[in-house]
Amino acid sequence: MYALGTHLLVELRDCNPEILKDLNRVKDALVSAAKEAKATIIDVSFHEFNPFGISGMVVIAESHLSVHTWPEYAYAAVDIFTCGDIIKPEVAAQYLIGQFESKTPSVVEMKRGILSFDGERMPHKIECAEAAAV
Amino acid sequence: MYALGTHLLVELRDCNPEILKDLNRVKDALVSAAKEAKATIIDVSFHEFNPFGISGMVVIAESHLSVHTWPEYAYAAVDIFTCGDIIKPEVAAQYLIGQFESKTPSVVEMKRGILSFDGERMPHKIECAEAAAV
Lengths: 134, 134
Hints:
The structure is a homodimer of 134-residue chains. Chain A is of the alpha+beta class and 134 residues long. Chain A has helices at 17-21, 23-36, 89-99, and strands at 2-13, 41-49, 54-60, 63-70, 75-83, 104-116, 131-133. The first copy, chain A, has a six-stranded antiparallel beta sheet with strand order 2-3-4-5-1-6. In chain A, a hairpin with a 2-residue loop joins β3 and β4. The longest helix of chain A has 14 residues, at 23-36. The termini of chain A are far apart. Chains A and B meet through β1, β2, β3, β4 and β5 of A and β1, β2, β3, β4 and β5 of B. β7 of chain A pairs antiparallel with β2 (41-49) of chain B, so a sheet runs across the interface.
């Protein structure tokens, strides 16, 4: 079976809470993770909640990375959804485990867009050369 | 066991390809889905790829909605990640199935942030009253 995308659901437990509260560190970590994985970044959006907690998304040509942090529980939920053969989602996951200093991470991999069951390979994009931000 | 969040992985197959190519329709659908589910929208980011295909994210106070469309395959991958008891992720999923005219949708529900195994309830946010866009 061929899938259009790979989606890693990353549970980062026992992280460093001070990092999870720091908007710039969290944003830099996700942006760097995308670059480490050879992704093409299209847009970045990060937000800080009151009294703490951060949500952020990095839209990439190959789909997206997202993070939601709960500093009060030393926990962050990360999603890394990628398509194509060039990008390495596991590299992004490994990088973030290190950046957030998670002592007990877990990673579950899901395949998205399994549309063919006869071995037919379905290219994920006919052409990805250009993206227009709107 | 108590989870901080609910994450619906929605596979929308056999959609209307013309809708999946239309940036405004896709964006309006996701924004409306978030509102139908009683979410608080923080930020919206949608992008069109060449020759077609749309990626979009709606950051909400309660986490996020995302969509990636493959009009050439009449398929869209949607994620609805929510926290708390007020928001109804299944309402958003049902709404999008209708908006994209998916004939064969599937929804898988994952729990995120299961940190306690002794029945202890862990509130998902100490306070969500304010979000600062950065």
